Structure formats: C-alpha cells, structure tokens
Amino acid sequence: MPIDLISAIDRQARIRPQAHALGDRKQWLDYAELAGRLQGARRSLQALDLTAGDRVVVWAGKSVDTVLWLLAMLAEDIVPAPAHPGLRPEQVDHQLARCEARGLLADRPRLTQYEQRDIDAAWGWWPAGAEAPQALAEPASIDPLAETHDERQPDPDRLAMLFFTSGSTGLPKGVMVSEGNLDTGTRVVADYLGLRPDDVIAAILPLAFDYGFSQITTGLASGAAVYLDDYLLPADLKRPLVREKATVFAGTPGLLVPLSQQPWLADAPALRVLTNSGGALPLAAVRRLREARPATQLFLMYGLTEAFRATYLPPDEVDTQPGAIGYPLADTTIGLVDEEGRLVGPGESGELVQGGPLVALGYINDAEATAARFRTPPAGWPDPQAERVVYSGDRVRMDEAGRMHFEGRLDEQIKVAGFRISPEEIESVAHAASGVEEAVALGLPDPERGNQRLQLHVAPAQVDADALRRHMRLHLAPYQQPAEIITHAALPRSANGKFDRQALLNQTQTEAH
Q1: Contact by Cβ (8 Å): 55, 100
Q2: Residue 88, burial from CB neighbour count under 10 angstroms (0-12, 13-18, 19+)
Q3: How many Cβ atoms are within 10 Å of 198's Cβ, its own excluded?
Q4: What is the CATH T-level fold of the domain 413-512, as seen in this structure?
Q5: Number of neighbouring beta carbons within 10 Å of residue 420
Q6: How far apart are CA 116 and CA 350, in angstroms?
Q7: CB 363 within 8 A of CB 174
Q8: In the chain, which residues fall in CATH 3.40.50.980?
Q9: 308-347: b (≥16 Cβ within 10 Å) or e
C-alpha cells in the first residue's frame, strides 16, 4: 500500500496537477507540488543512512511538512511511529525505547523541548545513541516525473506503521500495522464513505491516532483535498467547515458534541459527510447534528487501534437506531463470545472479536500483551480459514437485524454490593436526562461496604443534579443509583478525544485527601 498510495499521488499529479491536495493554515499544495516535495522528502531520508524496516518516532505538530515526512517514510519502507505533539519528553523516550527506534525526527518546537535549548532548524534528526541532533531542511521539491517507482502489492505481513495506544493498565503499547492493514482500511473506508476527487477532507484529529491518519490515506488515495488543522476551541471548527468549505469531517465525541452546539453549523456551505468513532456519540448530540444538517450523511462507527475499524451504521438508519454502531465492514468477520469463550447470537451480549485483513500484527516488543489480545479463533468461528483474531475487550450486543450495540468495556465494570454494573448503562440513562451533554460513571473503592461506590460525573455545570437524580431513580434499579453526582463545565478527554476516566479518578482521589 505505501508505494500504491505514492503512485496514486503521482497519477493525480499527471492528470490533475493543479488540484488542491494538501493544506494547512499556512499553505496549500496542489498535486504536482505534493508529488514534487514528496520526492524531496524521500531524498532527504535516503541521506540519513536508514534502511527498510527501520523504526522512526516522528514527534511534530500537524502540518503539511509532517505529512510529507510520514508519507516519504511509507514510500521508503521506513516504519514511522507518530507521537502526539502534546507528549512530554519522557513519554517520547518510552516510545523510542519500546519500538527500538533508529532515531527521532522532530520539528523545531518539539526538538527544542526535547533538547531543552533552542534549535536553529525547522526539523531535526536525532539518531539513537547520538549526543546531539542534526538539522534537516524542510522537504525540497523535485520533479515528480523525474523518477518512476514500480507499484507492488501490499504485503499483509510487512510492518508499515506503529500507533501507540493506552490500555486500562501499563504504559502505551505500539500497535504494529501492516501494509495490508493500511491498504484494506483505506479502500474499505473510502468506499463506504463514498469519497470523491472533489471532496475536501477536514483532518482535525491527531495524526498519532489511526483514525486521524486515515483522513490522509483515504483522502489522497481518492484524489481529494486534505486540509490539516487543530482543535482547541469550538470556534476552531469554523475554519475548516466554513472558510475551507470542507465536505467531509471526521470526529470523536470530543469534537462532535461541541460542533453540534454551534449555531453556524447549519450554514456550513459544503458539508456532506460526518463520521464518528472513538466512543459513543451522545444521543442529544446525534439529534442536534441531524436537526442542523438533515441532508448531511452521519456515519456512526466503531473500531479499535488493534484492528482499525470493525463496524459502521449506514446513515439512513441513524434516525431510528442512533445508539447502534452498525454492521461489520466488508471482508471483516465479527463474533461475540461469552465469559466461557462461546459464540453467542442475536439478543445476547459478549466480547467483540474481530477477524480479517484489518487485524494488526500485534504489539511491538511485547509478546505477553500480544498473546493476551491476539489469539486463535473461538470454536465455531464463521471464517474457517482464519488463524488469528483480536479480542477487543469491549462488551457488545447484537440485535435481531445483525446490528451491533456497544455496551461498555469489560475491564470497566463496577461492582456495587455484589452487583456488576455497566458504566455505559448508567451513562446512557444520564444522557437521556434534560440538560446532560456528557456523562461518565466511575467505581471508587468503598472499604466500608466492600466492592465499590458508584460516582456519576456530568457536564455542563448547569445540570440540575437533583432533577438528574430523580430521573435516574425512574430508570435504574436501586443498586444502580449513583452515590454521588458531580457536575463539571466539561469532562476531561484524552488526546484522542475519548473521556479520560483516569484523570477523573485522579481528581476525585486528590479531592478526597
């Protein structure tokens, strides 16, 4: 896939050289310029004494140049491991060590932070074991037609990229994504979203997030324009959607909830596709998006970094099934297994297990974690040719129509007075209450009673806690009632837009002391 993607860019450079390809707040490159600067980035990498299969951590802000370096590495069979630009140096050190990287490629702000002194260069390359970085210039432009590259079929066993993801315990793990994973994910997603050459893709999510990087691969493979920007405040969303006239916007709940509240959303001139992944989108936000953009297609999706994407709900079912995560993707096999490891059918809940070409190679340099998550298929698996599947750790229910409904993480169950409680069930009821935009249920240690006590955090701060408590009593069993309801202006989220449960736990425990 890496070479195929580069070839796709080269083809666009020949047939649509002046079409917008890749832009950020400072610049737009057309396809001829993108292809030329990509060749320059490849030449720069070739001068660094890197060989195929070498791993490189890329720590940089989101920009045209950052994407050029990442694409050039894919083209040269160097394995990029993008690091979130907001990480601390010690967190970057962990990624460097975990993937046994040949070095760190960083932009000036990150390199200055890492070196703790100002660096007079736009980019720097710091080889592993070296005492200091060496300066790199921004990728220069070379005639894209001066060199030709043979296309080759993606190798499902060849490592292409690393995406670091945090689990419920331990340090982040590096998910090994193969060429086959990238190729299949690009093709399948671009197909069901119906991406076109006249689209403008708003790439707002972090490039260190597989869902965020997918906006680059699917957009450029489709001949579309990809606009890069960052999100800090809701007003930041107006730039891609209004000024740049984006037609496709991919978000997590952390982006789409505030977007649904913007009065100008109905006036975005070109938006035709919205997608959500990385967490369940609250029903109130779904309804607001549908009211503001009735003609815009809303795709509710589910996936995990270890297998990229598993399901999506067709837009024509969103109004009637807004809580569903949809049906399995093409070429993907989905099954649900109970606590005994047996496959269950419609109407029952179980851990989602995924097989097919999107299943990653495992975790880099972590055989124990890989063996725990990536296993042989359970008995009766629908695909008899499958040798390996990934266990998601997510509890999902399948309805009679074959739609999947997310019910929660298996490792986040709360036990109160001997009863097992799903935090997502509590959160779903809270979301249905008047005024509640965000909700997270936590289990806190309760030594006096054993097990845990249930605590509910909601936003915004104006939520009437007494009215919410009455609502909860109407819809949940006595043992499911929160011991405490705490209101916030907004709930904390991780860099990937998911609710940061650990931050809430830490905050709660700090306040208790």
Answers
A1: yes
A2: exposed
A3: 12
A4: GMP Synthetase; Chain A, domain 3 (3.30.300)
A5: 10
A6: 49
A7: yes
A8: 2-237
A9: bbbbbbebeebeebbbbbbbbbeebbbbbbeeeeebbeee
CATH 3.30.300.30 in the chain, residue ranges: 413-512
Distance between CA atoms of residues 429 and 511, nearest Å: 26
CATH class of 2-237: alpha beta
For the chain, 513 residues long, the average pLDDT of each consecutive 10-residue run is: 78 96 97 96 93 97 97 96 89 94 96 85 93 86 70 86 73 92 95 98 94 97 97 90 97 89 95 92 91 97 95 97 94 95 94 97 97 96 94 93 88 70 85 92 72 90 95 84 94 84 80 56
**Per-residue tokens: 154:** 């993606």
What is the token pair recorded at 44?
Answer: 């720069």
User: 276-408: which CATH architecture?
Assistant: Roll (2.30)
Residue 484, sorted as left (phi over 0), alpha (psi -120 to 50) or beta, turns out to be: beta
DSSP H helical ranges for 158-306: 179-193, 210-221, 238, 253-260, 283-292
Rounded to whole angstroms, the Cα distance separating 415 from 428 reads 18
Size of the chain in residues: 513
